[in-house]
Amino acid sequence: MFKVDHSKGESKFEAIKPGEYEVTVINFTTKKAESGNNRLIVDYEIRSDVEQPCQGQKILFDNFTVTENAMWRFHQASKAAQFPDGMQFASYTEWAQAFLHKPLRLVVAEREYNGKKYPEVKSFKVSEVEAPQTDAIEVSDDDVPF
Question: Residues 62, 64, 70, 71: what is their CA dihedral angle, to the nearest 10 degrees?
Answer without folding.
Answer: 120
